Amino acid sequence: MSIEFLITSLIIAASPGTGVVVTLAAGLSRGARAAVVAALGCTLGIVPHMLAAITGLAAILHASAIAFQIIKYAGVAYLLYMAWMTLKEHGTLRIDPDDSPRSNGQVIASAILVNVLNPKLSIFFFAFLPQFITAEDANPLGSMVVLSLVFMAVTYAVFVVYGVFAASVRSHITSRPSILTWMRRGFAAAFVALGAKLALTER
Hints:
By secondary structure, this protein is mainly α. The protein has 11 helices and no strands. Belongs to the Rht family.
């Protein structure tokens, strides 16, 4: 594993995307614990795409226009749903006490769906991982698994940093309802923008 892979992974993980938005929203609305759980869910949502890349299923997804479109528009619909729920006062970005009854399982499931319903991730990893496998590698499959696990670890760490930072300014947000209103609008707009970006994505 090269330093180039670690740097590239860090840049990719830190780039604004659905996982970052979901983790930030969790930290702001429900605190650091929820942010860590959401970060875990977003990271687990990468697993199917990693497996697709490792097993070659991404190539099938790339070749099948129908399969790609079905998954893509399911992802768009879910992102628009997230935008709508974020705008609602009692929706995704509601400010809850840290012992909110929403279970860890619900937070993780919602976070996983955000990443699972993005077919471009499979194709991205299908193109990304092999770049760091040398022709002399005696076990390329094993190397891809190791690289995948490292990428997931980097992603999780970056998301946790985002989420914990958001949680650290949470008290300032809760004491200013007008700021919270604008943040709801901002996060909703971010989800809509991500949905539009995904809708325009081609194979």
